[in-house]
Amino acid sequence: MRRIHRLMQGAIPLALIGATLAVPTPASAAITDLVGWATQNGGTTGGGSAATTTVNSASALTTALASTSAANIRVSGTISCSGMLRVRSNKTIIGNSGAAIVGCGFNINGDRNVIIRNLSFRNWNDDAINVQESATNIWVDHNSFSNGYDGAVDIKRGSDFITVSWNRVFNHDKSMLLGHSDSNASQDVGHLRVTYHHNWFDASTQRHPRVRFGNPVHVYNNYYNSNSGYGVASTEGAGVLVEANSFENVSDPFHLGEASSGPGTLVARNNLLVNSGSGQTGGSVASIPYSYTPDAPANVKSIVTANAGAGRISL
After folding, report:
1. How much is the pTM?
2. Of the candidates 86, 83, 119, which has an alpha carbon nearest to the alpha carbon of residue 100?
3. 193-231, pLDDT tens digit by residue?
4. Is 207 a catalytic residue?
5. Residues 76-81: contacts with CB within 8 Å, 24+ apart?
6. What are the residues facing 263 on neighbouring strands?
7. Distance of alpha carbon 286 from alpha carbon 272, whole angstroms
8. What is the chain's Cα-based Rg?
9. Please, are residues 281 and 8 in contact by the beta-carbon 8 Å criterion?
10. What is the pLDDT of residues 180-193, one digit of tens each?
11. DSSP code at position 38
12. 207, 210, 212, 269: which one is catalytic?
């Protein structure tokens, strides 16, 4: 039997007073805009007005990413590689039509101000995108991820001010980890602030995201479909706002704690649950400091499936 209901959180915790509750408008007119945590801390501009380099081989890509100079890097065709390619600060990496990274991933290790857009990542042998060691101001937008070994987008070790938007994850297990270890509180508490919005978790299994320590982490307007593991997990004192998402055929949309990790807090507000479980909530979450306009949950499925992933925007 098909079950449809809306979960409307009741009283808003005091920590959420002042969070934006704007009137929803269709997102498709502004799907290229940067929203969320990556707008804070001075903003995220990537390569800015620096020169553009087009690369079509693993060696050229590796060299361009490793440069300490600001750059706009355009990826052409399919680049086959292995391991993790280091990405230095002040880079915008954009895929031309059909561009793909196959067999390897990007490692942002302590650098800042990086934008990664319009790429298809396949068959990576570590992570597709790894953000670590206090990296800040990162925007991961309009990419597709499939059939990799570990995380599609993993963020850890004190990294901060990050937006993950309009991506599609499919044919994959471990999607998005936020905070790598229960024992890393000293580096992570006060950091790991990330916005996940308008992503399409297309029958991917788990970690959409799995969160440790970060507060507030904002998960809004994502479309979850047939995720066999779970949707969102808040653990180890994290504070996660799960807002205006659409869950379809997801028995465990969100919960507190995961495996051996203790619980965090989680506030669920205005989510649409179709043939899905009711989720687990508890505690309060710090306020969201930036402006945003959530789409109505009933519109999220159509908006996200029409616009998320590589090849959906012209850049």
Report:
1. 0.92
2. 119
3. 999 999 999 999 999 999 999 999 999 999 999 999 999
4. yes
5. 78/102, 79/55
6. 235
7. 23
8. 18
9. no
10. 999 999 999 999 99
11. G
12. 207
